[in-house]
Amino acid sequence: MIFINKNLKMFFKYGICIAVLILIVIRFDKVFSWFSQIWNVAFPLILGCLVAYILNIIMKALENHWFPDTNSKAALRARRGVCVFLSIFLIFAAIFLIIRIVLPELVQAFSVMANEIPVYFEIIQDWIVDNGDLFPSLAEQIGAMEINWQEMFNKIFTYVTSGFSSMLNSAFSFVSQLLGSVVNIAIATIFAVYILMNKEKLQSQAKTLQKVYMKKSHMKTINHIVYTANECFTSFITGQCVEAVILGILCTVGMLILRLPYAPMVGTFIGATALIPMVGAYIGAVVGAFMIFTVSPIQSLVFLVFIVILQQLEGNLIYPKVVGASIGLPGIWVLAAVTIGGGLGGIPGMLIGVPLAATVYRLICMDVQERTGNENISADSKEAEE
Length: 386
Prior knowledge:
By secondary structure, the protein is an all-alpha fold. Among the domains are: 1-65 and 173-213, no CATH class; 215-374, no CATH class. It is built from 13 helices and no strands. Helix 2 (28-63) crosses helix 3 (73-130), helix 2 crosses helix 6 and helix 3 (73-130) packs across helix 4 (136-144).
């Protein structure tokens, strides 16, 4: 009888799963519409959870340095409130500082480019005409042409900037919509602060719900996955931020030593883009090289050589020690996670892909260790990769 009841329960469980899958396939448009509505409604709360998770990393570091051994409830409550406020302040200060340093010099570089590039074209044209014996046919054609490079470039620049301005308009419209959703942002902020201020109480409530509604085996598995994911995501965020700061400082100092222009701006921008794993610093380097080119093409070439050397130092020394060791993910899988994550979700996908892959990789390694009894499976996999 017990055996029959177990079979009925299993049949009922799998029957419901199959029915739900069939319903999703048949009415996919309706299901997608429902999920979209749920996402729109729950977005402030999801955003609040994300903000709380990031702020919690900073808050824990601050709490570890401010009365870490106190048992006074009043001191603990005051410490929590001050640390939450300081965490929010540090995040907004970093964003403001990056915008304040990068944006003005980026606008100035576009202005310089609009004035200087036509001059370079005219110099090249005059040189070809003056050295007609080297390029007779080309010199004859160019000499017969009456080109107003400034006017032509102004038209090109107007066309490009119109497209760029449309992109900016789209970005600004997105920002304005985001700022216009004051209620959503307010709810997200309040929700994040509430989570941080009542973190221990919420954890206790979650454990109580687990004990009431879950089997011990399921509860142990879920807690193990959550703990591993939290460890990987926290280590990745911390390591990536530290690595970005180190890279930005090294870039700024190196550019100052080499007397390259836009050193603070380019160093800050490369540090900010270095938050994107693997490819972020190269994105910043392209923008930096373009800006320096508006001042001196030779210095732009020197900058590119310097960035290649710096990236070798970063890839072989800084990243493995700061980020790689903390997440325990081999380099080939980091590249795979960045590629797949970027293809599926753009920049957010790149940021989430690496710690998510590190979580899966670590869970698989620990499961293999448990099944085989080989405690050195992670080290063995790294040696095999090398």
